[in-house]
């Protein structure tokens, strides 16, 4: 991912666009075959040479063209960039690079989805406590938790695929996008060769709402990864210890406290999600340009777009590694279910009373009274219910997983899609 965004990679792509545009002009009979041959043979200019010329001219595109034409005979160099304006080159190359970057990112997110699916299936029948508001609620399974994350990753894949299609476009339409000095065939040829669509009505630049959509999708991916990371962090706390991040043999968690085993990967992923949300906001700010174009978006994009895609790729990769190596403790999970003496089965008891014909308010108060007794005195929930005249029978997490097979079928469908 990082290699796509180097100066040298940018000039390599710019060179490709210039050659394709010259090929199209040659097909139209506007550029001599000999000049096309010279332009094709020319080397990609070195980034250092472009920077050297740019210091004199204060214009990167003109500096690139000057450096590029140093390797082309003068009679042929005059045909380079024929009828084009700067952003015909910049935005068409940008679309090509964005498409490739999206493909790299999609590979990482697809792997994350697959890891989540596999571990969800692995722990489908591993009971754990569900929590709402941070408090014990009802039993679920750890596989159920992971399956929710897997479907979120799947939605991220689909959002990124849609966004890729929107940014994989170019325009070779000349100043203010009117094709006054360049035949639309050149645009069609260049974009087709690069696997790009064409901006329907160009204004000289590709519309920035496209890039805003991509960075919104990236920010949403970051938030979904953050959700996974936060769950791992919460379940890793000393008093919980239901999961633990994978550790190296030489792991050291603190410079002062040798006992520490901190969820630092999850914390890192959480922080990076904040960065991605910031970049998404910048992309929205870039949509409104003055008239047919200005350059207010350019300085932002040079930082925000490469950084956002690189951060997102790192985040998705690290999250997949985290889940793949996550240490899970079914024993601690079962202990958490049993820790409150059966309180987490209160809803099952209430439902059974209602189905048996007990009036709702009376049933609720009776179960709540027994629950409050457990909370205040530490008694046994079943025994206190018995004192209220309620016979519960055996209580266990299985009573909450009666229809779990429906969810498993959905997960297996996603697994088949993944394959």
TrEMBL record:
A GO CC annotation given for this chain: cytosol
UniProt domain Adenylosuccinate lyase C-terminal: residue ranges: 341-412
Similarity remark: Belongs to the lyase 1 family. Adenylosuccinate lyase subfamily.
Record SMART domains: ADSL_C (SM00998)
NCBIfam families: purB
Protein name: Adenylosuccinate lyase
Catalytic activity: N(6)-(1,2-dicarboxyethyl)-AMP = fumarate + AMP; (2S)-2-[5-amino-1-(5-phospho-beta-D-ribosyl)imidazole-4-carboxamido]succinate = 5-amino-1-(5-phospho-beta-D-ribosyl)imidazole-4-carboxamide + fumarate
Region (Disordered): 245-265
Pfam families attached to this UniProt entry: Lyase_1
Keywords: Lyase, Purine biosynthesis
Pathway: Purine metabolism; AMP biosynthesis via de novo pathway; AMP from IMP: step 2/2; Purine metabolism; IMP biosynthesis via de novo pathway; 5-amino-1-(5-phospho-D-ribosyl)imidazole-4-carboxamide from 5-amino-1-(5-phospho-D-ribosyl)imidazole-4-carboxylate: step 2/2
GO biological-process terms attached to the record: 'de novo' AMP biosynthetic process; 'de novo' IMP biosynthetic process
EC number of this enzyme: 4.3.2.2
Organism phylogeny: Bacteria, Bacillati, Actinomycetota, Actinomycetes, Kitasatosporales
Naturally occurring in which organism (per UniProt): Streptomyces uncialis
GO molecular function, one term: N6-(1,2-dicarboxyethyl)AMP AMP-lyase (fumarate-forming) activity
Enzyme class, UniProt record, top EC level: lyase
Keyword Signal: no
